[in-house]
Design goal:
The protein is built from 17 helices and 26 strands. The protein is α/β, with parallel strands linked by helices and 606 residues long. The protein has 3 domains: 9-94, Immunoglobulins (Immunoglobulin-like); 116-206 and 251-445 and 498-514, Glycosidases (TIM Barrel, Alpha-Beta Barrel); 528-592, no CATH class. It has an 8-stranded parallel beta barrel with strand order 10-11-14-17-18-19-22-23. Strands 3, 4, 7, 8 and 9 form a 5-stranded antiparallel beta sheet that branches. It is globular and about 85 Å long. The termini are far apart.
């Protein structure tokens, strides 16, 4: 009897047998060719035609580890649903037994939303070795300081020796650059043993330009109706779209079922175009939840248009996701920290009011005119909990969208950086830290992508063209300082130096202490009422109301010069009845490199 977990691909059966199934409506015939790792043909077996462009065959004497490709009329190509490409996208696919790994996480159920602190990392630069095994060794320390969820940048196989991963072409094959599939499983299994959730960044809006052979199997993988910002858009509502949808829905299930990932981060969902009655994003969300039955799944979307229905329940005609990335918070924070309002920062002022509004309501743009794009932007979010929004001071895109890939602490005063860190980590929103941010890493994060020479030139030109929207970069003298994405040095200098945990111990301790407060202070983590007040153009307060008897918390933030309040006609500053305020934590404590003020100071005439 044939057993399958995926509708297509090579599935291991009993007795050294494999069932092959592939969708190739562009072909009259398909055969599977067993090859050596260097591509020499060893034997060939024809597949039988099914309905709707599918071909399949049960083949005996195919040991685990066997290499294979599919022969079509147009040539010989890797399996579109390959589980591993040991020589990269252009090489042969390998038979993998998905049941060989021995999991120990059977009691794992995930974590509730109010406990989440996300840590985004890129496997190739997170450690010097750039592997799953090396990253696994750092999980205990991440757990110790208070991280509860790891977000892995895309791992689907791509060409070259290094890259961000957003140009993946073998969506079911974890990149061989980081290790074997079982290394990924070992990482996740150990994370679960430590109480850490792990989600994967998936790219369902385009495929990479090199090593993408899907068109050889069917041109219907790609849309003739829409255009993507990064190449051919994918076909979710055109001819033969049913099989294309099946491919991507199966991919979402695959990472959760076979690798035990705890959810998905969906890249640039505004570029996933679909006019079907049921949008592909909803089907992916539903399929992921089904695949993770019994576990708490976390599905977060990046969406530049700020379409809030993505996180509303299906009963409210939403797509049922858990959270959205909130670029508005980041943009306000960067403007407040640096004073720069170039390019897409133009629509933000960095004022105290923006912070209060973003912390209370999520998006700042909920349908207003957005001058940078010369159109309205965003949708209403007043009914959504703050935890529905993932906020950050750094992420992979925002650090790299600069001339030198510098971190925020290098672009502002250390006092402002510490204050903004407190806002981030003590918010009711879901905070995200980018790798190394917790110890003020001096390693830049630049755009890097290893391609063949001609494509490399195009990538460099495209990168510079994108960055020219920033006036400070759009100059002849700046171009010479822009890192070449295809240079190995560009990649290597982005690797973290963990010795900075000691050398920057005061800032590392600040993050650790803030995460401890967030974890242990239930008033902050679970306040039912949360409000804010403006104290000045660059100063504000956020109050966390406890249930009776009162045990409220007040976060006072000043991003400007010394603030003296001779009059305080603001009820949020009033302590609970018959009580007073006491300072429990200060970003200016000497242990964080500052000068702590242990009590409120009043002006001389106060």
């Amino acid at each position: 009897m044939i057993t399958r977990t995926l509708p297509v691909g090579a599935e291991v059966q009993e007795g050294d047998a494999v069932h092959f199934r592939v969708w190739s409506p562009a072909s009259d015939s398909v055969s599977v060719e067993f090859v050596s790792l260097d591509g020499r043909n060893l034997r060939s077996t024809p597949l039988e035609a099914e309905e709707n462009g599918y071909f399949s065959a049960f083949v005996s004497e195919v040991p685990i580890g066997t290499f294979y490709k599919y022969r079509l009329a147009s040539g010989v190509f890797p399996d579109p649903v390959s589980r591993f490409q040991p020589n990269g996208p252009h090489g042969p696919s390998q038979i993998i037994d998905p049941n060989a790994f021995r999991w120990t996480d059977y009691g794992w159920r995930g974590r509730p939303a109010n406990e989440l602190v996300i840590y985004e990392l890129h496997l190739g630069t997170f450690t010097k070795e750039g592997t799953w095994q090396a990253a696994l060794r750092e999980l205990d320390e991440l757990r110790r300081i208070g991280i509860t969820m790891i977000e892995i940048m895309p791992i689907a196989d791509f060409t070259g020796k290094f890259g961000w991963g957003y140009d993946g072409v073998n969506l079911f094959a974890p990149s061989q650059l980081y290790g074997a599939p079982d290394d990924a499983k070992a990482f996740i299994d150990h994370a679960h043993a430590l109480g850490l959730m792990v989600i994967i960044d998936v790219v369902y809006n385009h495929l990479g330009p090199d090593g993408n052979y899907l068109r050889q199997f069917s041109p219907d993988y790609f849309s003739t109706t829409y255009k993507s910002e990064w190449g051919d858009a994918l076909n979710f509502d055109g001819p033969n779209a049913g099989s294309v949808r099946e491919f991507f829905i199966s991919n979402a299930r695959y990472w959760i079922e076979e690798f035990h990932f705890d959810g998905l981060r969906l890249d640039a969902t505004q570029q996933i175009m679909d006019a079907s009655e049921v949008h592909i994003l909803k089907e992916i969300s539903d399929a992921a939840r089904e695949a993770g039955a019994g576990r708490t799944l976390y599905i977060v979307a990046e969406n530049e248009r700020q379409e809030s229905w993505l996180v509303r329940s299906p009963k409210a005609r939403g797509y049922g996701m858990d959270a959205l990335w909130n670029d508005d918070f980041h943009h306000s924070a960067v403007v407040a920290a640096t004073g720069s309002r170039e390019a897409y920062y133009f629509g933000h002022l960095g004022t105290a009011q923006e912070f209060v509004s973003a912390l209370k309501y999520g998006f700042l743009y909920q349908g207003q005119w957005y001058a940078w794009q010369k159109q309205r932007r965003g949708h209403a979010t007043f009914d959504l909990e703050p935890s529905r929004f993932v906020i950050f001071l750094e992420n992979h895109d925002q650090v790299a969208n600069s001339l030198r890939g510098e971190r925020l602490h290098q672009l502002t005063s250390i006092g402002v950086f510490k204050a903004l860190t407190a806002v981030l980590l003590l918010s009711r929103s879901t905070p995200l830290l980018f790798q190394g941010q917790e110890f003020a890493s001096s390693s830049p994060f630049l755009y890097f992508a290893d391609h063949e020479p001609e494509l490399r030139k195009l990538v460099m030109a495209g990168r510079y063209g994108f960055l020219r929207q920033f006036r400070s970069i759009d100059c002849a003298e700046c171009k010479q300082y822009l890192a070449e994405p295809g240079e190995s040095l560009t990649f290597e200098q982005c690797k973290l130096d963990f010795s900075e945990r000691s050398r920057h111990a005061h800032l590392y301790r600040l993050h650790e202490d803030l995460l401890r407060i967030r974890r242990e202070d239930t008033t902050i983590s679970s306040a039912k009422l949360y409000d804010g007040a403006i104290l000045g153009e660059r100063a504000f307060a956020m109050r966390y109301f406890d249930t009776f008897p009162r045990d409220d918390r007040l976060l006072v933030v000043n991003l400007g010069s010394d603030l003296y309040l001779s009059a305080v006609p603001e009820p949020l500053l009033a302590p609970p009845e018959s009580m007073g305020w006491a300072i429990q934590w200060s970003s200016e404590s000497p242990e964080y490199g500052g000068m702590e003020r242990r009590s409120w100071r009043r002006p001389a005439d106060g």
